[in-house]
Each structure stands twice: as structure tokens, then as C-alpha cells.
């Protein structure tokens, strides 16, 4: 990687760390982490992933929480640019995929505006990782041919236009929706979605503490409250979340043993 004394700007690598399990890193992401001199990371990046970095690497946390941010986004942008202008290569390590609710687009724009080289290394997104770990197909020939990703933690939620995002034949995946689950359920039902539509909440996806909780849409707020669901969690809404057919599962298990 570039020497700190170099007058040539270093490269900012926007790297997706995936949903949590280190085994789900891409090979390119793993290589960059293992040779990194400077890692600027989110709070959701698993400690086992950070442990892959060299002992000499500088690790800077820019963790964001609902009520408290270690750094504001403009400050993070400035940090990346400043370090690269010093000649350092920077691994900007982000949970999931940098360009899916990861603000990677803003960081890439800041780098381009400053003349700093920027490369993007995609990661398995939280939605894809969570659905796979829970064995919930986001698309299915008999259940869904459309998938939508939305952010549930945004201002003016009631004013957002979610028309057509959820319903028969469609799957809706909501990021950052734990704190606004009641408003989300009320909004979708008011927009015409059946209160009985199946919902799955996937907490700590791909990690040892992962939980998959199910309820009808109308029961989503009480489920999150009673189970004390915490972030990171994604909410999946649609027919793909229906409980498995237990009779079919028994038949398959019997077939496998005969």
C-alpha cells in the first residue's frame, strides 16, 4: 500500500463486510482487510472481521446509533479524503453492501470531488444474507416475483410513497425498522395491505445469536416489543414469510430416513 510520505493520494476502498459472518466476506474484501494499514469501520462490522487486520493497522470506529453518532457523515467523508490525501490507502469497512443503505454513494462522491481514487468492493447485503440464513427466498415462482428494499428509519415515514411495494406476489424488506415497527405496520395496513400478511423479523443475521421471529403484519409491533428485538435486524413482509407446511416437512424427513 502507499507510503504515508507519498505525494500521490492513496485509494479509498469502500468495502462491504457482509451481514456479519466472516465466512461471507468476498475474497477481495478479505485480502484488503488482511493487508490494510488503516481501516475506518462501522459499528456493525463483526469483531472477528476486524481481527483479520494486521496488528499494526489503525482501526477507527465511526459507529452510528439511533441517538448517537461517533461522527457525522460529513466528518466521515472528510476523514476519508484527508487520510487518502496524506498518501494512505483507506479501507472503509461497512456492514452489508456499501451502496445499499450504507451511504457509500455519498463517500464516493466526496472522494471524486477531492480527486481521490475510490474503488468499491460489494458485499452480501443485510437483506440477502438474512434471507438466506433464515431460508426465506425473497423471490419464489409461487409467491413473489418482485422485491423492494426500503429504509424504515427515516423522517416523514407516513409521507413516504410505498404504494405497490408489498402485497400478493411481492416481497418487502425493511432495513432499520425496529424502532418504527408500529408506524410501519399502521402505514402498510392503511395503504391496503392485509393485516394477516406474513412477516418475519431476522435479528443478528448469520451470527450465532440469530433469531427468526414470525407474526402477521398486525402483530409486528407487539412481536418486536415482547421479544425485545434489537438492531441489527431486518423485517421481511410477504407471502414468502409464511410458516413452513409442517406436514410437508414431516413427509420430507420421513422420506430422507427411508
UniProtKB/TrEMBL annotation:
<dbReference type="InterPro" id="IPR014777">
    <property type="entry name" value="4pyrrole_Mease_sub1"/>
</dbReference>
<protein>
    <recommendedName>
        <fullName>uroporphyrinogen-III C-methyltransferase</fullName>
        <ecNumber>2.1.1.107</ecNumber>
    </recommendedName>
</protein>
<keyword id="KW-0489">Methyltransferase</keyword>
<dbReference type="InterPro" id="IPR003043">
    <property type="entry name" value="Uropor_MeTrfase_CS"/>
</dbReference>
<comment type="similarity">
    <text>Belongs to the precorrin methyltransferase family.</text>
</comment>
<dbReference type="Pfam" id="PF00590">
    <property type="entry name" value="TP_methylase"/>
</dbReference>
<dbReference type="GO" id="GO:0004851">
    <property type="term" value="F:uroporphyrin-III C-methyltransferase activity"/>
</dbReference>
<keyword id="KW-0808">Transferase</keyword>
<dbReference type="InterPro" id="IPR014776">
    <property type="entry name" value="4pyrrole_Mease_sub2"/>
</dbReference>
<dbReference type="InterPro" id="IPR006366">
    <property type="entry name" value="CobA/CysG_C"/>
</dbReference>
<dbReference type="InterPro" id="IPR050161">
    <property type="entry name" value="Siro_Cobalamin_biosynth"/>
</dbReference>
<dbReference type="InterPro" id="IPR000878">
    <property type="entry name" value="4pyrrol_Mease"/>
</dbReference>
<comment type="pathway">
    <text>Porphyrin-containing compound metabolism; siroheme biosynthesis; precorrin-2 from uroporphyrinogen III: step 1/1.</text>
</comment>
<keyword id="KW-0627">Porphyrin biosynthesis</keyword>
<dbReference type="InterPro" id="IPR035996">
    <property type="entry name" value="4pyrrol_Methylase_sf"/>
</dbReference>
<dbReference type="GO" id="GO:0032259">
    <property type="term" value="P:methylation"/>
</dbReference>
<keyword id="KW-0949">S-adenosyl-L-methionine</keyword>
<dbReference type="GO" id="GO:0019354">
    <property type="term" value="P:siroheme biosynthetic process"/>
</dbReference>
<feature type="domain" description="Tetrapyrrole methylase">
    <location>
        <begin position="11"/>
        <end position="220"/>
    </location>
</feature>
